[in-house]
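Many introductory courses stop at the sequence. We go one step further.
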Amino acid sequence: MTLKAPINAGHMVPNAMEIFIAKRWSDPLMQVGYYKDQDLATAGETSDDVYSNGSLKKIKDGNKVKVSFSLHELTNEKLEILQLGLISMKAGTVVGEVENFMPGSWSFDKDILLKYSNQDGTPADVTKVEALINGVVKPLAKGTDYEVIVTSLGATAIKLKKGTLLTDTAPVNVKLTVTYSATANDVKVVEHKANSLAKGFVMVLMNEFEYDGKKKSIKLYVEDCQASKALMKQIADNDGTTAGIPVEITGTIVKQDNMGFSLA
């Protein structure tokens, strides 16, 4: 099969080389960036088979693809997809939230930092703090056994006090449970999972261009995608000299559409 009218790449006028991602195909695809042709490469392993008159490079898993781009628009939805399975996001407003703190995770010299806090910087509404002591749940008294404090940046924490209930050995023997509510309508709380496994998301690479006054496009549909570099680390390491956050995604090509190519 040959092209009726072969396309001279030197005369192509590129319109867009866009990248779209989603958790699954049934979700709306979101545009996350643009890529260049030199940033799209095979992600499979290669091996050189050497012969007397030369060598042939073979690619294992030739349906694997790797694309690099810069993320310019940071949104909760995009970050959650790119780190799918590694983090979870929840709304900042909670009512009756319960957090448990196991023995060894707190001490009288280490305050308990709550996941949620009020957006206006006031303390979260702590309704009760309980301690599991020798198999018996006992309520702790505010002012006597603990204090509710606010950090300089507005987060809420619990400061524990030694007393009749919380003795010197309590930090290694006592489980604490804190029940509270917080209001933060414009905040998403991100939880980094200790035992996590990256899950695959889906991606579409769309290359649109014009040739001889006609629109043509190549679309690559990619599954089992993963951000192969730690995105949060890239954000932390970004020194401001580059535009956008560098992202690298690998995945498996499952479908390709070529539009506007005339085949014999």
